[in-house]
Automatic annotation (TrEMBL), chain B:
GO terms for cellular component: plasma membrane. It comes from Lentzea alba. This is FtsX-like permease family protein. The chain crosses the membrane at residues 20-40, 236-265, 286-311, 331-354, 407-430, 629-658, 679-709, 729-751. Keywords: Cell membrane, Membrane, Transmembrane, Transmembrane helix. It is found in: Cell membrane.
Length: 231, 768
């Protein structure tokens, strides 16, 4: 995919729950190579927006097309296969498997695609080196710091070389120093061409990593503007 | 409403699935417990129960009416029934052959002693009516309405079947009818205050016969003798029922311990939160005990009622043969189930709750939801390097994360597999034995040529072959469709040195093919050779190779035992036809057995036989079923289903708990591309692994128990545990049995696993 091509195209997406409307006719396009930060108050629909793009949830109406694939036509299994190769996700609370070592957590993503354990571990070791945590590869999540856990989570998200990296409050559970490290990591990734979509409350993260800022209020895009990265 | 109750009730309402699972498991376990305890109680003393229920007679006595009057027999201070007029009726010349019957004239079946239970039809209230003494469900060839016509005596119509555990009579009629039949004795039935030993019964007998003229007492029957006979005939059930009772008990306890302790462990974080907002450690414990007890008490109450409703018929079937008329579980069974199960639940909850109580609140709140031990991590690391699909290797490692829970689940699966293995083994043993002793060959035609030797000719109705023995045999052999033929003649003989008689069946023709199965030695093929059942040898202290002397019709001959055959009649001997000539020279066969070729029409064949010799009588095809075998097999099937279902319920609960604890992990796995099917595979594999191990442990243990139970059953039936009973597990059967554990595990796991696979990732991952 070349820079400028649309990676995500959301059109008039509405998501209703029994007692509320999370997204109200939202439309959004994310292009390859962009780093888009989504901000907004609690309950504004940011996480729902992310879930729609990741295929974790389905819209009540409207369409979500990612890498040219209309997610609305995919079954649960189809969505899983789509996520496996097309999407990398980073969560606020890391969501690592406690009984797998850091290396095996990362290798797991590749193994799901059918890659052998040996090949998966080799690729994971490379990523650990690139992310600066090679010395921690055989440690279990409980023994890692918050920043290290999030780096491991990022490594896992990058394992299958996804075209789109989604991050939901990636620094929300980290101390400031760890948060800085993760911000640097995301910035570096985007600068080498990784498309990013961040959901965050952290304005520093948004302004530092994103090339475009979208503010969501009551399920709609209230404001949208390009950013100059603060280097 | 105090804080403890409020918190507990809120937890019950919020954790609906857990509440339902605890309720259902405790309900099923309580029902199983009622059944298990009921079985144990029933199996412990079925004769005694039946005897007590009927106020059985400790002593049945027959007095000479010429020497004592009815008034002479009255005794103060002793419970008694009678005197009843007693006579003997020989039915050998009747259409309905019932042998020699001891018939008692009795106005009604009730009374202080020997309360006879009428289980079909009604009591005899009019002249010409008779009620036969039979164990419930066993009417034989007679039925209500059957007519017993006797020469020079009034005809009697069967109006009902009743059972006397005491065995006080073979049949009952009205007192007036008994008088008309010609009474030969006065029957008295006594219950003594103490009758546990023969000396007690003798002492009681001395009291009730004191002062009577010499020779007035014609004969007596002690309840101890009756009990010995009953338990030797039906005691075969007892080891079987006992072992199933114990299995039911153990499985019920295991499952409840697993479910309840799992519920408490799953709530560790909740416990920590309660502490954080000011609940004392004891209050926290109380919240948890109440939370678990609410569904447990409801489930226990329902289960106890259900156990009484549904388990009782199973136990009733099993003990019917003992004459237990209407089974009611002893009060202690329900008390133990109703009180014991909640106590068990409380104990199971208490252990992990005490552990949680000791933990600081902060640590409990922050504790991960999974346990991590070094071994579990090493296994998970090793599995991740294997070539197995990742969903499978992750699933295989899951049981090690919660070793205690997995061990309890595994134990339940082991017991489930063991139950199935034992039940299958017992069923196969019973089926093999039944097929051997009661062959139900659709390809055989049995023909009567005349009345069996030793019995009186039953008049014009009896079969009477028109052709000679040799002509009949030749005719039968020449018929299209005949592939093998056996001619047989029966003769009642005295066995010298013994007190019992024996029936010898003399075989001519293809005896080795069509005769009973030879277990050891050989089929007799010459004069003076016999084969006998093992019970014949055991009761007389004989062995193969010994020689015995038999006598009949004034002739005597020695025969050598050359083998052991499988048959359930202890007093039946089989000999070659050449031996018959020594006892009854020139006797003819009284029956023939023909094996027909496949595809031969039975009706066409028998029509051809009767066209050539109309004097032959074709017997209806044998009903090869045995009520004992049917009851044991059906009880085995029922118990297996119940215990297998309870074991599967334990697996279900484990998967529910694991999935709940692992919901964040499962959500993450789905978020990185694990399909719902793979999530299902992961969770099912985790239990399938336990199923495999459970199968590998449960099958050999089940076989070992079979090797103990079946010989015990055989001993109770005074038979040998012959190969046909013991060697029932063959390779294909073992392979299928080994899969039982996997089947139990997969059946229990698949529903909650599919539920977990449908978890909303968005909800799981964003709600921390």
């Amino acid at each position: 995919m070349q820079n400028g091509d649309a990676v995500v195209e959301m059109t008039n997406v509405r998501k209703e729950y029994s007692d509320s409307v999370a997204l109200d006719g939202l439309s959004l396009t994310v292009r390859a190579g962009e780093a888009v930060a989504v901000m907004g108050p609690s309950g504004s629909g940011k996480s729902t927006l992310l879930n729609m793009i990741a295929g974790l949830d389905r819209p009540s109406s409207g369409s979500v097309v990612v890498h040219g694939t209309d997610l609305g036509v995919l079954s649960e299994t189809g969505l899983a296969l789509f996520r496996r190769r097309g999407i990398g996700m980073v969560f606020q609370f890391f969501n690592l498997l406690d009984d797998l070592s850091a290396l095996d957590n990362v290798a797991l993503a590749a193994q799901l695609t059918g890659t052998s354990a040996g090949q998966a571990r080799k690729r994971a070791v490379e990523l650990f080196g690139e992310l600066g945590i090679a010395h921690r590869k055989n440690v279990y999540p409980a023994q890692l710091s918050g920043g290290e856990r999030q780096r491991v989570a990022v490594a896992r998200a990058l394992m299958n070389r996804p075209a789109l990296l989604l991050a939901d409050e990636p620094t929300g559970a980290l101390d400031s120093r760890s948060g800085e490290q993760v911000m640097d990591l995301l910035l570096d990734l985007n600068q080498i061409g990784q498309t990013l979509l961040l959901v965050t409350h952290d304005e520093r993260l948004a302004t530092r990593c994103a090339t475009r800022l979208i503010e969501v209020v009551d399920g709609r895009i209230a404001r949208e503007h390009s950013l100059e990265r603060a280097l | 409403m105090n804080a403890v109750w409020q918190a507990a009730w809120a937890a019950v309402r919020r954790r609906k699935l857990q509440t339902i699972v605890i309720g259902v498991v405790v309900c099923a376990a309580s029902a199983t417990l009622v059944m298990a305890l009921g079985l144990l109680e029933a199996a412990a003393a079925p004769f005694d129960r039946a005897f007590a229920a009927q106020q059985g007679a400790h002593l049945s006595a027959a007095f000479d009416p010429e020497k004592v009057s009815e008034a002479d027999l009255e005794r103060e201070g002793t419970d008694s029934a009678g005197p009843f007029l007693q006579t003997t009726v020989d039915t050998s010349s009747s259409d309905v052959f019932l042998g020699s019957l001891t018939v008692v004239g009795r106005p009604d079946p009730g009374g202080a002693v020997d309360r006879v239970s009428v289980w079909q039809g009604r009591w005899a209230t009019n002249p010409g009516e008779i009620v036969l003494n039979r164990a419930p469900g066993t009417t034989g060839r007679t039925e209500v309405g059957s007519r017993i016509s006797l020469p020079d005596r009034p005809a009697l119509t069967v109006v009902g079947f009743a059972h006397s555990v005491t065995g006080s009579a073979d049949a009952w009629v009205t007192p007036a009818q008994a008088r008309e039949l010609g009474p030969t004795a006065l029957q008295m039935l006594y219950r003594f205050a103490k009758a546990d030993t023969a000396a007690d019964v003798d002492a009681g007998q001395a009291r009730v016969t004191a002062g009577l003229p010499a020779g007035a007492l014609l004969g007596t029957l002690s309840h101890l003798t009756v009990k010995d006979k009953a338990t030797s005939e039906l005691g075969v059930f007892i080891p079987f029922l006992m072992i199933f009772g114990v299995l039911g008990l153990v499985v019920a306890v295991l499952i409840v311990a697993n479910v309840v302790s799992g519920a408490v462990v799953a709530g560790l974080r909740h416990i920590g939160m309660l502490k954080a907002i000011g609940f004392t450690p004891n209050q926290v414990m109380a919240v948890y005990l109440v939370m678990v007890s609410i569904p447990a008490v409801a489930g226990c109450a329902l289960g106890t009622v259900a156990g009484n409703l549904f388990a009782k018929p199973v136990v009733q079937d099993a003990v019917d043969g003992f004459g237990v008329d209407e089974l009611s579980f002893a009060p202690w069974v329900n008390v133990v189930a109703a009180l014991g199960m909640p106590v068990l639940v409380a104990l199971a909850a208490l252990v992990p709750a005490l552990r949680a109580r000791r933990l600081p609140a902060a640590r409990v709140i922050s504790a991960g939801t999974t346990a991590h031990t070094g071994r579990a991590l090493r296994i998970q690391r090793w599995l991740s390097g294997t070539r197995l699909p990742r969903s499978v290797s992750l699933g295989l490692g899951l049981p090690f994360a919660r070793a205690g829970r997995s061990a309890l689940t595994l134990a339940a699966v082991v017991f489930g597999v063991m139950t199935v293995t034992l039940a299958v083994g017992v069923t196969m043993s019973m089926t093999a034995y039944n097929e051997a002793v009661r062959p139900n060959h659709a390809d055989r035609v049995e023909l009567l040529a005349g009345p069996p030797l030793g019995l009186r000719v039953p008049g014009e109705e009896a079969p009477a072959a028109r052709l000679s023995d040799a002509e009949d045999e030749s005719m039968l052999r020449s018929l299209p469709g005949t592939t093998a033929l056996l001619a047989m003649s029966q003769l009642e003989t005295e066995v010298a040195g013994g007190t019992q008689k024996a029936m010898i069946s003399f075989y001519r023709g293809d005896g080795a093919t069509l005769g009973p199965r030879v277990l050891t030695g050989q089929w007799p093929d010459g004069p003076g050779q016999v084969v006998v059942p093992s019970r014949f040898l055991n009761q007389r202290g004989l062995s193969v190779g010994d020689t015995i002397t038999v006598a009949a019709r004034g002739n005597r001959t020695q025969v050598r035992i050359v083998g052991v055959v499988l048959t359930n009649n202890a007093d039946q001997i089989f000999a070659d036809w050449s031996t018959l000539d020594r006892l009854v020279p020139g006797a003819r066969a009284d029956s023939y057995q023909v094996r027909t070729a496949p595809g031969t029409n039975r009706d066409t064949f028998t029509a051809a036989v009767l066209a050539r010799d109309p004097g032959l009588r074709v017997l209806p095809p044998r009903d090869g079923t045995s009520s004992t075998a049917v009851i044991i097999i059906s009880a085995a099937v029922m118990l297996t289903l119940v215990l297998g279902a309870v074991a599967a319920l334990g697996v279900f609960n484990t998967v529910v708990l694991n999935a709940r604890e692992r919901r964040r992990d499962l959500g993450m796995l789905k978020s990185i591309g694990m399909t719902p099917r793979q999530v299902t595979v992961l969770l099912v594999t985790s239990m399938g692994a336990l199923g495999v191990v459970g199968g590998l442990i449960g099958v050999p243990v089940g076989i070992a128990v079979h090797q103990v139970v079946v010989p015990a059953m055989a001993r109770a039936g005074q038979a040998d545990a012959v190969d046909i009973l013991m060697n029932v597990y063959h390779a294909p059967t073992l392979a299928l049995l080994a899969l039982t554990g996997v089947v139990i595990a997969v059946l229990g796991a698949v529903v909650p696993a599919r539920g977990a696979a449908r978890l909303s990732i968005a909800t799981v991952l964003h709600n921390e």
